[in-house]
Amino acid sequence: MAPEYRYHPYAFPAGPPVPPQADALSATYRKHTQRNYTSSVVQYIQNRRSQRDAWDSQVLQPTPAAAIDMSTPATYSHNPSNSFAAKFVHSCTNYKGRASSINRVLWTPSGGRLITGSQKAEFTLWNGQSFYHELTLQAHDQAIRSMEWSYDDENWISGDDGGAIKYWTSNMNNVLVNNSAHQESVRDLSFSRTNLKFCSCSDDTTIKIWDFESVDWHPTKSLVASGGKDSVVKLWDPRTGRELCSFYDHKNWVNSVKWNQNGNWLLTASKDQVIKLYDIRAMKELESFHGHRIEVTALAWHPIHEEYFVSGSRDGSIFHWLVEHETAQVEVPNAHNSNRNNSVWDLQWHPIGHMLCSGSNDRTTKFWCRNRPGDKYNINVNQSFGVLNSAFAGQMTCNAPIPFHEVPPTLTLATRKEGTTIPGVGTAI
Predict the structure, then answer these.
(1) Reported pTM
(2) Residue 235's CB: how many other CB atoms inside 10 A?
């Protein structure tokens, strides 16, 4: 294969060069040529046999030429800063006349496509590699508020403002409908690990005693977490319906609750602009994250790095955080920016963790990827774990990057709270 066609993550288009044809035809050809943001998987498959662990992975140099060596986030499990997906890739807006607020975004289990749920009760299917529009389906009668895949990746459910819940197959065929599941908006949905049951929460006060805003089923146990307008986070036993524990640390409406994949941490976001982390083994708050200047509306844990999560707020900003660090590692203050309300309603990671998707009230669906080595960084990067990212290294006023060498995370100067120990991560430094 000729060198100019070599397959790699970012630097070259996913296809042959544009042929020297008529101007109109050439313009059309270029319009549909897209860069490949998923070929790092090929690099991972090629190298994983020769790598005993993450420390055998090749060190990325802070130069554009190193983009060909980028692999998936699983390769850099020792360094979550290499997975900060804060570089804007593409913005998708449905065709004119149907544009509306994007309330939910959901990757398919394979990562090949993205499903969005809109204020006009439509599902829109986007290609996850070239980002073009594939399908629009009138799925509900009222605005879609929640969507969730089952753990076996065969089925998924959705809920709307009218209280209806619909059950879908993987090919988007509607097989079950319950139009009276709730009397008001269905705010969140979550499957149990066995896929035999799922839970839902709503704005109504007739079925449930408390008015919930967010709910999430524990990844391995029979335990459900919920948050609501009463600013209380509660843990429930779904077998008996009994309340097990309550946390009263938030000062305002709880917008989102998310279990970590390790099953020990529960993350909550509130209208009081604070994100809180709880450890259910100790049944207490471990850490609070301050940085947003307005209410936090969305949360998402990274699928590979258990200490890494992102948050979105009503002003359209997206922040990237690491557990045990008080400040955000990366801040994207105008991730969604328009004359309308810029609220980030949902955040979803690609299944392999190399790309982030955000849905907003500004009627756009945006994709974010990792920075290439040597890229100039035009957003806020705080000095903590993020300094280990080779994409951020050597960024001075001159054009020549400084040589960069990765060091073990234990040598990092972090903003971790002195004297504290976070279970699952280690002792304070």
Answers:
(1) 0.63
(2) 19
